[in-house]
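Weekly modeling sync, notes
Attendees: AB, CL, MP (scribe)

Item 1: holo prediction request
CL wants a bound-state model with arginine before deciding which constructs to order. AB pointed out that an apo prediction alone won't tell us much about the pocket. Agreed to run with the ligand included and paste results into these notes for async review.

Input as submitted:
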Amino acid sequence: GGLVWRGCSAGSDAEDGSSGALTNGDLNPGDKLEGPGAATDDPVHLKRRVGLFSGVALIVGTMIGSGIFVSPSGLLERTGSVGISFIVWMACGLLSLLGALAYAELGTMNTSSGAEYAYFMDAFGGPPAFLFSWVSTLVLKPSQMAIICLSFAKYAVEPFVSECEPPYALVKLVAVIAIVMILAVNCYSVNLATNVQNIFTAAKLVAIAIIVCGGAYKLILGNTRHLQEPNFASSTATLGNIATAFYTGLWAYDGWNNLNYVTEEIKNPSKNLPLSIIIGIPLVTFCYALVNVSYLAVMSVNEMADSEAVAVTFGNRLLGPMAWLMPLAVTISTFGSANGTLFVAGRLCFAASREGHLLDILSYVHVRRFTPAPGLIFHSLIAVAMVLYGTIDSLIDFFSFTAWIFYGGAMLALIVMRYTKPHAPRPYKVPIIIPYLVLIVSGYLVVAPIVDKPQLEYLYAAAFIIGGLLVYLPFVKWGYSLPFMDKITVFLQMVLEVVPTTTTFE
Ligand code: ARG
């Protein structure tokens, strides 16, 4: 019973483009896991099926998730003015665009999967690459999942508590239920997970369309006064505040690098990869601008900054008897995003343990369902802990801080390789000023909030990264393993009914 580790048709699949890259592997339960070299010794010829249109759809589908439905309030609060918050929204779009263009060079230069992992390996060697996979499996992916599920819960609960602050415990409970449901979907079958993905992706576009049309209608009626409101707060815009405002905004744009996980499947990548980026990211930026204007066409700046779920407030003001449409569309959209994020997280975990970078058990698949259940469960457990411990805003800070360390690292990798591998073929070459610029901005984004207002979250993130090194040396570099690990692995294998697998998926 070989299973084709099916991706879904590109474009509609992925919340995260990465899912598409991990296709075509025949998983044969019972076979042994292959060593680190496997992926390169035994290339699978992935079909190049992502054209320009699918590329753009993949970028747009990944980037639009929960952020545009939760971030606008926080961003307004953090910047203290409509004008500055609008500038931050646009700057986040620009930064994502520039970052993605640099990734286009990296992705066409080194087409092996794993994106950042592969670039760090090339530019800096093993330890930084390990740190990346360590942090992305332990921190980045679970926190994405936690943030999206908390946003889901906010919207699922809000209609029932009518515009007052929903009880905190209830939101967390619903978020945990969402995680468990998504875990069940992804453990049950790969097909189900990809179908959920395809159907739910449409919902977010509907939600955006409703908001933009509604806002346009209001503006045509002449409802422009909130857009002209002066600063409503005494200027809170310190440098650190602006940086965390960027965190909030950049969350909504996260996923701009996801096409890099499917470079092998892009038709004519040196042309279509940069082109999809140049079309897709400004398109999202444009949508976000319109949505922000629409929100302000319907509510005042203060109402928006105070709103717990800004799209619900929008729906209540504008849609009358159809107001239920908004929370419904947003819950479906966020559920889909979380599903896509877990789908990818499972594969990431798989890839990292295949490299010997995580516990073996995390790369095993279920005997009959062929789903990477241990990895999925592992991620979900961390995500649940984050939901219980954190809030959307603190998790977004935690996530963005960590993510931008690595995005900055990728810029550095690009710059370093211009010197260390000057003659490597670069089908797409980005103007060198761009990675320098993004590197400087990411340095600012990482340092400014710490200097301005040290938070425990940043310390945790730093501890995770450094903790990674402590694990790397004994267990990866020197190859030690814990004496009782075998027994635990066997025990878990029996409980979960999972087996090692030979995989050729990239
Ligand atoms: N930008 C998305 C949102 O607003 C989050 C994407 C999470 N990142 C990812 N690679 N899936 O919810």
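Recorded for review: The pocket of arginine is lined by residues 15-16, 62-63, 65-67, 144, 148, 251-255, 258, 337, 341 (CB under 6 Å).
Action items: CL to compare against the apo run; MP to circulate these notes.
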